[in-house]
Amino acid sequence: MPTGLWRTERFAALIGTGRYDGGYSFEGELWLWDWEYGDVRRLLGDSRQAVRCRFIDEGRAAVLLRPRDEEEFSGDDGDWDASDVFIGLVLDDLRDIRELGIRSEEYLRDPRLEDVEPVAASSTP
Question: Most exposed: 1, 4, 77, 99, by fewest CB within 10 Å?
C-alpha cells in the first residue's frame, strides 16, 4: 500500500511502498518524486516496507519502516512480533542513494539503518 505526502511548495511527493511477503520479509521502497522536473530519487538502500513518510522541511523527511525481516528485532527470547515493530528514521539528505554512494542492486545494508532502535506498535500514535 503506497503512502506519502504531497508538498506543493516544492512540487514533490514522498512515496513509500511495501508489503509483507507472507513468509519472512517486509519489502518495499521509498521514493522522492519531483513531478515538475520529472526527477525520481530512490531514498533507501534496503528493501523495507515504508509504512509512513512525511517532509519535515525542505531537505529532511521522517520515515516509519518495518523491520527487514521477522528476525531483525526479535530479541534473544524472540518475544517481539515483527508485525508490531517499527523503526523511525529522519533522513537529513534526500539525494538519490547512488549519489550517496549506497549501492542497492543487491539490496546491501543501508548504513543509515545500522544503529536504529525498534519501536513497539503500542507506543506509536
Answer: 77
